[in-house]
Amino acid sequence: MNMFTISGSPHVHGDESVKKIMYTVVYAMVPAILVSIYFFGLDAARVLLISVMACLFFEWAIQKYLIKGPVTINDGSAIVAGILLAFNIPANIPSWIIIIGALVTIGVAKMSFGGLGKNPFNPALVGRVFMLISFPVQMTSWPVPKALFSSQVTDAITGPTALGILKEGVGAGKTIEQIMTDPNMPAYIDRLTGNMTGSLGEMSALALILGGIFMVIRKVIDWQVPVSIIATVFAIAGIFHLIDPTHYIDPTFHLFTGGLMLGAIYMATDMVSSPMNMSGKVFYGVGIGLITIIIRLWGAYPEGISFAILIMNAFTPLINSAFKPKRFGTVAK
Amino acid sequence: MKSLKTFARGGVHPDENKFSANAAIEALPLPKQLVIPLGQNLGAPPKALVKKGDIVKVGQLIAKGEAFISANLHSPASGKIAKIDDALDASGYRRQAIFIDVDDDIWEEHIDRSEDINRTISLSKEEIVARVKECGVVGLGGATFPTHVKLMIPGGKTAEYLVVNGVECEPYLTSDHRLMLEKGEEVLIGIKILMKALGVEKAIVGIENNKTDAIQHLKKLAENYNGIEIQALYVKYPQGGEKQLIKAVLNREVPSGKLPIEVGCVVSNVGTAFAVYEAVQKNKPLIDRVVTVTGKAVKKPSNFLVRIGTPVSDLLKAAEGLPENTGKIINGGPMMGKSVSSPDIPVVKGSSGILLLPREESKRPQPKPCIRCSKCTVVCPMGLEPYLLAKMSKLELYEKAEKDSIMDCMECGSCQFTCPSNLPLLDYLRLGKQRVGHLIRTRK
Ligand code: SF4
Ligand code: SF4
Question: Can you give the pTM of this predicted structure?
């Protein structure tokens, strides 16, 4: 006789899946990947490839030999982590350092907390910060971009990032005007298109925003997080610029440098480590924006968004219990 | 184009798959035997009035609802009571039922069987309620709440609107759609009767915009019926939920834990309005209903007018058989219906459709860990956090779940439908609701 399945409703499922979400994120990063390869050539491809392969390998090895559970590397989450890690490091970094970074990303920040969905912090950021602390020299000597196919063959030229120049200049007591005349300072348009020194993925704000819009449309991220981060940074930097333009640079500078877009659109929006409810997302975004700009204006590091995100990740559980969605049939409190 | 009304928060868009939308209602012949479960209304089951060997006519009272919330049952055929015994019903349990050996189709004389539409409502308010009660009318949208109880407004409250559910937001199902098309005027008269019983001046019929033919048809007919407004709605599940429907048509929010009357509304379904018409104008008890039989592999997706107690297997035969690859039989729609173990269950008052899912759609995919994507929270029409409630229920943290409003969950399934990790959220929520409900009751 025919046996019929008995299970509770609902009996149909929509077309969402973990895999679909992860690959949507991958597709969203394609423009930024292309930009990085355009400016850093094969070096960028090498960093991306090694990072992704290493993340996949470590996830596979840990699931198979340490946890001895099901291997789920085809869900796409390790690929996303790999690309994000690569986006956060300079193109000229030695391969072995990338592999160590991938081990920390997957092994420490993801698998040791229980794997997909359990990590309190964004794994790629943990990997990145670990590398920054362990290999400060290699992590902060950024190659100068040379457009692909250009005749330039000077592989070894490195230079400071725009934010680095700013930080150093301000520290040395220079005015903004003086700092902007620094020969290494990228022009406005270069900051927008990504023709400046920096990590792989923080180059082109335009490419990053394009991917972000794609993710918002595909409902993979909510616009609340990036918009509140960017708005906060812009507002605070803007206020100080208005008060004292000789010592505080115009706020758009902050938006297009130091991986702000990368952090706001791709790192802070990590589903697992960011808050669940809309009002909580805004609070979280404002928090990241505030901490970022505080570090940038007065802290020791030139950038700051990585730390800001990790700090706010730690608050995510608290934010989740403080910001609840409005229940139907109740008056908003 | 003016954007259509809908409810504000949450909701999903499952594939509509309304294969039977163009299949006219077709009356099925009487089976050899009817099985009438006693408990087919919400509340207490009625008490059987007949015993083995009794001869009954169509429309004869065979079980009487004695409790406050209960409903009468009438014989859907003429014949002999074979036995009163346990029978498998849609709940998956064996429950008491009256078995009738059918020999003919002889009706009680007082029932008006003509097709003429009777437009004059001559009964008074009280008489209407009494007649609806006598005829065993229950909510046909699925809840099977006795209609006469709904018509008695609790003291201190007043009804302002009758909100009529013509939404049929469940995918696949089309019985209400066909009823609106084919019995539109009767439905409107039924609405008028309900309005009179409730003492309200205004009724709004909410219909989703995937049924434009029904919207146009009823709009035209409604020109002759004062106070009935036909409201087209943007298609979104679960718009047929009482609270969502009221929100959509009137932008009023029924407070958590309260009934629609709190915001001056009474909600009824178009099928119920039709049954009320038949009861009040034709003296006909609720002995039959329209049931959709559908599914991707069903050869002849249909809408059948069937007598209560007819075995589902008869309906499947009439739809040209149970498809070879059927993996699941659902009593109701795919979002809120119940899967049943066998087609040998009877049609009851609450059966709106029989859906057959192919084997490949019957098994749930392997669940993955929650990736905290918050999609369940975004789609929950009640503003709950399904991932959290499911986890609390799993960890048996029932007090916490209660504080986070688990009892507001309407079991619409939107969260589980959406979850990219295929988590059985609603299974946990149902369990949690049961336990929390128990907790609340023992506290009193
Ligand atoms: S089943 Fe309950 S928790 Fe899930 S979406 Fe519906 S109301 Fe919300
Ligand atoms: S939809 Fe599923 S995976 Fe996403 S938060 Fe809810 S339970 Fe978790």
Answer: 0.90
